[in-house]
Description:
Number of helices of chain A: 27
Mean pLDDT of chain B: 92
CATH architecture of chain B: Orthogonal Bundle
Number of helices of chain B: 3
Helix content of chain B: over 70%
Order of helices and strands of chain A: EHHEEHHHHHHHHHHHHHHHHHHHHHHHHH
Oligomer: heterodimer
Strand order of the largest sheet of chain A: 1-2-3
Distance between the termini of chain A: 89 Å
Distance between the termini of chain B: 54 Å
Structural class of chain B: mainly alpha
Largest sheet of chain A: 3 strands, mixed
Largest interface: A-B, 11 and 14 residues
Amino acid sequence: MVNFSALALIPLFPAFGAVFNLFFGDRLGRRVVNIVGPGVMFAAFAVAAWAFVRLAAMQPGSALVAHLWTWIVAGGFNANVGFRVDALSAVMILIVTGVGALIHVYSVGYMAHDEDFARFFTYLNLFAAAMLILVLADNLLLMFVGWEGVGLCSYLLIGFWYTNPQNSYAGRKAFIVNRIGDAGFLLGTFTIVAALASHGVWTLDFQALRANADLIGSAAATAAALLLFLGATGKSAQIPLYVWLPDAMAGPTPVSALIHAATMVTAGVYMIARLNFLFLMAPSALALVATIGALTALFAATIALVQSDIKKVLAYSTVSQLGYMFLGVGSGAFASGIFHLMTHAFFKGLLFLCAGSVIHALSGEQDMNKMGGLRTKVPITFWTMMVATLAIAAIPPFSGYFSKDLILESAYESGHTGLWLIGVITAGMTSFYMFRLIFLTFFGTSRVEPEREHHLHESPPVMTIPLIILAILAFVGGWRTHGFEQFLAPVVGEFKPAVEANALGLSAIASASGLVGIALAYLFYIQRPELPDALARGMSDLYDLLLNKWYVDELYDAIVTKPLFWGSDNLLNRLADRFVIDGAVNGAGLTVESVGEVARRAETGNVQHYALAYLIGAIGVAAYYLYLVTH
Amino acid sequence: MIPLHYMMSLSAIIFAIGVAGVIIRRNILVMFMSIELMINAVNLAFIALGSRLGSIDGQVIVFFVMTVAAAEAAIGLGIIISVFRNRETVHADDLTLLRW
Lengths: 631, 100
């Protein structure tokens, strides 16, 4: 516990950038925004790195804190605005500011032809500030502030090109689906407060919660853990609330890379790792986390197999990889989930940026059926994307191998053999659909439309340099597995295996699964390109099911959206609003009007009539008092 | 010593004449004069009762009323002149612009 008030600067730099770009961005022009937008992120990264270096030099288990002010005092309860950097949040702030800064730089190139650059960087900076508050917060309430802030920025950025109604629809969908999860988060928080308050402890501070975890009781802990996990499924796109993430690809590609791959969607994993003591008290909730994670990983991977939009493949792949992270933390190996979170930030951020570079090169084309043969046209994009693909396919020695391996090993050793098997199968699918993407995009003959072919070009250095840096990270990012686990151990605890396993054997099986996936993709899309179509025709029912994403959107539409709209229109709009409320208001007006229509006849305008009425009134009053006096 | 009820009766008669004038006469100038009659009827009642009760309050109030009545007479006549200039009538039945 060392005081380090410079921590406040980490979210303040991007917040300043957001305010600056909002008010002066358009006036000062593109060149200033292009410096300020990424600049504040590099400044935040410098402070974060400084904090990390200081923390690394200290005893394991120590932390840097910055208490800013007391936010809420209500009876015995109080919440601070305070930041805290321990091993877990140190990793997170480095990812958010580091990957974030690279993506900001990339955005300079990607948004070079967009008129609305100032608004874009305003939102992007604001997002970074909110995300940093989320990971730096020292209590659950302040974390929720960041949690909502990133949700807002996600909504704003998905609907960034708002002139297309589909984009604003996608933004609203993301926002509303996240509301469901956020309600769970809040209820979970209330449950914790209520459980502790009955023992006279009023706090949401993470340290105090950990110290008083025993007081919560296992029933309340299970309830709170389940509700908080509902929040995590919303933010981190897990079954049943994952439906918003694929649609979120409507936003600009750097947004998909930063928010919907590298940082925001991992907030749920971070939250569970942060509250590991709570989830460890609720083994059934933890098992549910692992199960949902594994099922989501498999489910999303099956959809990714057949999508033809390059960003949709990556979106489902993100859902799938997030499922792996939940499988990791759900197995009790919190460090493995965070480890995969980090390598995923590198390789998935890179994959999205590469996809953006391809889309940029093809003047906005996203359909992989209209790509092909781009290997020589965009060589830097190709090679960096290859690195990222090998990483996500978990091929040694790329970073994804180490993190995915650790998760699968933990799942097996915690006794979830079935979930481990799902993970292994999903790993094969992952490498299949990723290499399908690579082969369709970069290999074979060009299927690019002639007018797009015309100005096909490699992206400028401002976009390719972030790609190269991320490629290096995606390559080496997983090499210090053991050191990473030890670094996090004081915060998230050490994983205790329940089942002995041959780690090397497990690793060989997982890698073999990945290699089979690659071989199949090679067979399907290089050697015998007619095979996929034949297969799709042969199993057209299954193919349609996958192509239409298991009809989940349609299902939700039928059981949630439609009844909601029906109820809103018929009960709330027609009955309650138009009939009851409008009826009451209009009825009151109508009554006054019709009574007035009659009563106004009494107004003759002749002053003597008024005087007569006054006289009669005065006589009446006098007579009344006379009556009172005489009786 | 004049008995009180003489004075009160006189006051009431003058007041009733004023009321009748306001209600019955159509000429607003006459109506205005009738109002002055009512004011002075009330003044008479104040004086009579003040004298009877041996209190100076009645006389003091009469002075107030006379002051206000003077001001009111000036304003009222001004209004009537203004009305006549604009409408060329002082007939109350013709001055009914504020009706429904």
